[in-house]
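<instruction>
Derive structure tokens from the sequence

<record> Sequence and structure tokens follow
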Amino acid sequence: MVDLSVIQWLDLAGVFVFASSGALVAARKRLDIFGFVVVGFITAVGGGTLRDMLVSVPVFWIQASIYVWITLAASVMTFGFSGFIDRRKQWIVWFDAIGLSVFCVLGASKGLEITGDPLISVMMGVISAVFGGVLRDIVCNEVPLIFHGEIYATAAFLGSVLFVSAMGIGISESIALWLGIGAAMMLRSAAVIWGWSLPKSRGLHD
């Protein structure tokens, strides 16, 4: 039996959930099964791909094809249940929140491992968490959630900062992971439930 670490299990779970959130958007757009796979794939691996390119390491899904298989499985499963899911946007929101919470911490962890720089690690966490969703929304002709004023990237930032800070004061990595995931999930959940949002510009006036 393959002995996977907590980080590896979380990484695989995050890819599955994010691929499902992408495929759910494809369901709302009434795309075919190929569309489900494409949108699911770019949602699941987009952020991690950009992160790995920025820190000059091999792209994770090219090094391990299991990530590709997981995105395919998640996308096809979502396609199979698309009639039941229909247009329920809340499914997308919550799947996306879970993926965001997991990926912000995993991205920060990888950034810290490679660079050792706390600020860069936080930035890698945010990029890992939000960029796949940005690509998904652009491909599906929607305004990305990150630009809606919703507390989205802010939740990823909080989770990344908490993880990096916990590691910096000597807390074990496994505890730091769950602290970061929990903080990001709670903030994003609160924003969804109570409609919290960031201040918006009033625009320019002549």
Summary: The chain has one domain: 6-194.
